[in-house]
Specification:
The chain is of the alpha+beta class. The chain folds into two domains: 155 residues, no CATH class; 79 residues, no CATH class. Helix content is 28%, strand content 31%. Helix 1 crosses helix 5 and helix 3 packs across helix 4.
């Protein structure tokens, strides 16, 4: 009789474990669907107005481009015009190309026009930057991004103000639009580091086994049960957490037990006005 009781208890334990696994899988599926639904709702929102160069000239959810620039003024240079009567001098202006209200970030073009010679021709330098507010410190940040990524995203979805932001972030982290949405919806970002779900790596793809604590991008500490580097140089971690050495960001924990790539955001080459600011 005792043996029968043990067998039944083991059976119930197995059923409980299976139920938990199925519940976790269902939760992950619902989370992915929610991210896709949010993306679709943004794509079907009322289109915005853009100028002849792709800059936003109409309101976004009741906010003008000037309002958005004022919000992130601490991350942007101040516009100016300074020319003499012989057309020597320079000027700087700002235009908004994308805005994501959910993330509270914007894509801004910094345009510097200058002429060092008397009655000469203007030269123009353009930088595209992603600007926002650090959620931990409240300080502004500026991240130089790819102009081609911004332009391509606008061409694909010109009526969506968040398109340029998503295009820039996909380029920054080398992810698809769906991967980006799933990671952001699950809170898997810490500053310029993003956790992205991955398949379990095969032994053939592992170039090196790393320590269980690894620092990347100077100040972001990865802790995981296992951390590897692939032959392509990608860092993968099993059920990782992220910690910030300067305590400027809250810790981030993997939203499921499995493998993630840990991706540091790429930076575009830039002129002086668009250099990186903040972490």
């Amino acid at each position: 009789m005792t043996m029968i009781t043990v067998i039944r208890n083991d059976h119930r334990s197995a059923e409980t474990a299976l139920a938990l696994v199925m519940a976790e899988a269902e939760a992950a599926a619902q989370q992915s669907k929610a991210a896709e639904s949010a993306l679709e709702s943004k794509q079907t929102a009322a289109p915005i107005l853009r100028g002849s160069w792709g800059e936003i000239v109409g309101k976004i959810e009741g906010r003008t481009p000037a309002d958005i620039i004022a919000t992130f003024a601490a991350a942007l240079p101040k516009p100016f015009v300074n020319f003499d009567k012989y057309r020597r001098g320079d000027a700087l202006n700002l235009d908004v190309y994308g805005y994501d209200a959910d993330q509270n970030v914007a894509v801004v073009q910094i345009r510097h026009a200058f002429c060092p010679y008397r009655n000469g021709y203007l030269s123009v330098h353009k930088d595209y930057v992603l600007v926002g507010i650090n959620e931990g410190t409240g300080q502004a940040f500026r991240h130089p991004i790819s102009a081609s990524a911004v332009r391509a995203a606008i061409r694909k979805d010109p009526g969506n103000p968040a398109a340029a932001v998503r295009g820039a972030q996909c380029w920054m982290w080398g992810v698809t639009n769906r991967q980006l949405q799933v990671s952001l919806a699950a809170g898997q970002r810490q500053g310029d580091i993003l956790l992205v779900r991955e398949r379990t790596p095969s032994a053939a793809n592992i170039a090196a086994e790393l320590a269980r604590e690894v620092t990347i991008a100077e100040s972001h500490l990865i802790r995981a049960t296992r951390i590897i580097r692939t032959h392509k140089g990608r860092i993968l971690a099993d059920t990782p957490s992220l910690w910030h050495a300067k305590a400027q960001h809250a810790p981030v924990f993997a939203d499921w037990e499995g493998w993630f790539s840990v991706r540091a955001a790429d930076e575009a080459e830039t002129w002086n006005w668009g250099v990186r600011l903040g972490d």
